[in-house]
Each structure stands twice: as C-alpha cells, then as structure tokens.
Design goal:
mainly alpha, 25% helix, 96 residues, single chain
Length: 96
C-alpha cells in the first residue's frame, strides 16, 4: 500500500484515534476495550480485518472460517489482504 514513503490510507483511516482508555491491541487481538464493545464502534471499514460472515480475524489468523482452512471466500481473497496491509500501515504510523 505504500509508494515512495507516502501513505495510501484514506483520510478517515489516517484520522482514526484509538480511544484514550482503550488497551485493545489491534495487532494481537488482545487487551481490554475501554468501551466494552465486542468490536470497536468507530473503526473505519478500511481497518476492519474481521470477516463479516464468520468473524475470522485475518490479522492474527484466529477463528473458525466458514469457507475452509485456509479461508478462501471472496472476502478472504479480495478484501482481507488489503485491510491487513492497511491496519499494519496504520499501526506503523501510530508507532506500534
């Protein structure tokens, strides 16, 4: 997603602030969420690495994908890789 050291994230994703009291680690899918929601309610879609059908986490490869192991549905093949890359880029910009 990067080219010539410039970010390719949307303005919405770039501006996404993790809540001040949130200890959730997007890279490991661990930690206490300050809002106590199952998933971050303000996370831009571009950074959402969870399958919308089976909730498989493509960032940490965790869950039970409905489409097979390894996951091979349309989301797994066409959407998830870009979102994992975008989340990696966002985390790097946050210094993590």
């Amino acid at each position: 997603m990067r080219s010539n050291d410039t970010t390719s994230l949307s303005e919405e994703a770039l501006a996404f602030p993790q809540c001040e009291h949130c200890a959730y680690d997007f890279r490991t899918d661990e930690g206490e969420r300050g809002c106590h929601y199952y998933e971050c309610p303000s996370l831009p879609e571009e950074l959402d690495v969870w399958c919308p059908t089976c909730r498989y986490n493509f960032m940490v490869h965790d869950g039970n994908p409905d489409c097979g192991d390894p996951p091979d549905c349309d989301f797994a093949v066409n959407t998830a890789p870009g979102r994992v890359e975008a989340l990696d880029e966002w985390l790097a910009l946050q210094g993590r």
